[in-house]
Amino acid sequence: MYIRTRLALWFMLILATMLGAFSVTVYQVTRNSLLGEIDRDVRQRAAAIAPTARPPDGTTGLHVPDLDVFTAPDTYLELLDAHGAVVARSGNLGTRVLPLSRTAMAADRVDEVRIGGLVLMVYARPVVTVAGIQGYIVVARAPRTVYEAVDRLRSVLYPGAALALLLTGLAVWLLTRQAMRPLEDLAGTAAAIAAARDHTRRLAGPRSSNEIGRLSMTINSMLQALEDAYRQLETLNDLQRQFLADVSHELRTPLTIMLSSLDLVEKVGASDPDFQARTLADMRVEADRMARMVTQLLLLARTDAGAALAREPLLLVDVLSDICRQIVPTEGKATLICHELDSLEGAVVLGNRDYLTQLFLILLDNAFKYTPAEGSVTVSAALHDESAVVSVADTGVGMSARDLPRIFERFYRGTNAGGARGMGLGLAIAQRLAEAHEGSVVVQSKEGQGSRFTVTLPLLNATSLREEAPLEPSSTMAPDGDASEQAGSSALRAHGASRARESAGTDSHPARDRKS
Questions:
Q1: Among residues 257, 267, 264, 246, which one has the least CA distance to residue 287?
Q2: What 3-state class would DSSP assign to 385?
Q3: Stretch 105-133: mean pLDDT
Q4: What is the dihedral of CA 143, 149, 153, 155, to 10 degrees?
Q5: Other Cβ atoms within 10 Å of 318 Cβ, number
Q6: Phi and psi of 337, rounded to 5°?
Q7: Do residues 82 and 74 touch, judged by C-beta distance below 8 A?
Q8: 3-state SS of the chain: helix, strand, coil percent to 5?
Q9: Is 66 exposed, middle or buried (0-12, 13-18, 19+ CB in 10 A)?
Q10: Residue 383: beta bridge partners?
């Protein structure tokens, strides 16, 4: 059954109940009101006639008034003595006798009786003197006109209510049909979209803010979300195909070298021990390269899958200090400069120590790789709002403008990479690790002038650092600064670090979660 039919039927049922209740109420109220008017009239007439029937002072018989004076065409009067015998009656009563109901009189009630086919409303009232009840006055009125009026009302009210119900039901059905037509159009368009599998189509619903308009906009929003999801899935599929192609290409080279080396060893290895040793060494290099690639691919796969890292509160300055201490300067390598790390004193981040270490080592390895020996690599840090900002800058070859948008893509290597070792996975891993820590990594570079990678990580204790900010000494001090003030500055920094370690619930070297 259509919704519009159900709505029309329900509306007609409710309207029929309301019209029925209204019709019955109007009928009963009108009938009771008219009959109540007759009730009041006979009471008033009896109350007005009873005093005129009292005997004069000094007499014992009833005084018989002219009853016709008090009558009307539909009103009848009768005077009875104390024993109930008729003393006088109105002329329009003829030979008929009005009944005297002592029970109704005692209850002061108007009774409806039928006398010779005539329906009358009868009311009796005693005629009382000092000597007691001398007689009774009985007043009756025919409610024929009232019944005729209420019958006419009923003959108009009930059929009128039925006709009104029918016409209203028809109007409701037509209106609901008209109101439901946009829904039918929406259903037809949605079915066409589903059949054609065309995610770019949209519903052409009404441009109003009513329920159907909001439904149309909601469905269009859902279709837009489906289209976005579909395009995202297509993009992921394209990336997956490209990823597999890149992996196949990258693995094919070392495998080809290893297979060729094995063939050569098999042919001439026994007769030339030196050649055999060199070949095995080359194979070991290629095997290490494949092992590193597989490890990096596994890490990328875990970050892509959204695997949760085992994170804990860490003092970021400890992580950076350990990295700077572990990197030993060697000949033929650019100089490492770590400064302004004390600006992170007391800064706590929620992270995985091993993964954060790997993130910064990737950036440092990338910087050293493309920086000549006479150049330098600088690690600096600062606090900004509720984040810790760590920069790794170098004075190397830099990157061209066309390489910057793709530098974080997997297996992508810049045009100026030259013969530097690498597979193009490091920066992609660094970006995923930063995102896994709810942070980001961005790059600024100019060809021939070097590059700067900036890592931003959210602070865990930003509020407490702001509260302790007034305690920090000024970064600039007069040349003649007192040594005691400098000592106080160091004590304050140590105090801040201690407070941060307590809030982090760890010492400066937390237990590491080693993962391959």
A1: 257
A2: coil
A3: 85
A4: 90
A5: 20
A6: -120, 120
A7: no
A8: 55, 15, 30
A9: exposed
A10: 388
Structure tokens at 504: 């982090």
Report, in angstroms and rounded to the nearest whole number, the Rg of the chain calculated over CA atoms. 54
CB 299 within 8 A of CB 428: no
d(CA 331, CA 127): 143
Residue appearing with tokens 């309207």? 15
DSSP H helical ranges for 265-315: 273-304
Q: In angstroms, rounded to a whole number, what is the distance separating the alpha carbons of residues 104 and 116?
A: 21
Cβ atoms of residues 42 and 139 within 8 Å: yes
| Local confidence band at 510 (pLDDT 50, 70, 90 cut-offs) | very low
254 contact partners, CB below 8 Å, separation of at least 6? 286, 287, 289, 290
User: Contact at 8 Å (CB) between 7 and 172?
Assistant: yes
Nearest C-alpha neighbor of 382 from the set 430, 322, 339, 325: 339
The bridge status of strand 335-339 relative to strand 376-384 is parallel
Select from 372, 359, 335 the least CA-distant residue to 449. Answer: 372
Give tens-digit pLDDT for 236-288: 787 677 667 766 766 776 787 788 888 877 777 667 778 778 888 878 877 87
- In this predicted structure, which of 206-220, 430-444, 495-509 has the lowest mean pLDDT? 495-509
For residue 129, the cross-strand partners are 132
* Dihedral angle sign, alpha carbons of residues 402, 408, 410, 411: positive
Cα–Cα distance between 487 and 471 in angstroms, integer? 14
Is 502:311 a contact under the CB 8 Å cutoff?
no
Q: Which residues contact 482 (CB under 8 A, 6 or more apart)?
A: none
Cβ atoms 399, 416 nearer than 8 A: yes
144-196 vs 211-264: helix crossing angle, rounded to 10? 20
Q: For residue 232, which amino acid is it?
A: Q
* Beta carbons within 10 angstroms of residue 397's beta carbon: 22
Q: How far apart are CA 285 and CA 404, in angstroms?
A: 30
Residue 186 · residue 219 · CB < 8 Å: yes
Count of CB atoms situated within 10 Å of the CB of 270: 9
Which 3 state secondary structure label does DSSP give 377?
A: strand
Q: Half-sphere exposure of residue 466, counting CA atoms within 13 Å on the CB side?
A: 9
| Measured CA distances, 280 to 128, 258, 294 (Å) | 145, 9, 21
DSSP state at residue 447 = T
- For the chain, the maximum distance between any two Cα atoms, rounded to a whole number of angstroms, is 173
d(CA 385, CA 400): 32
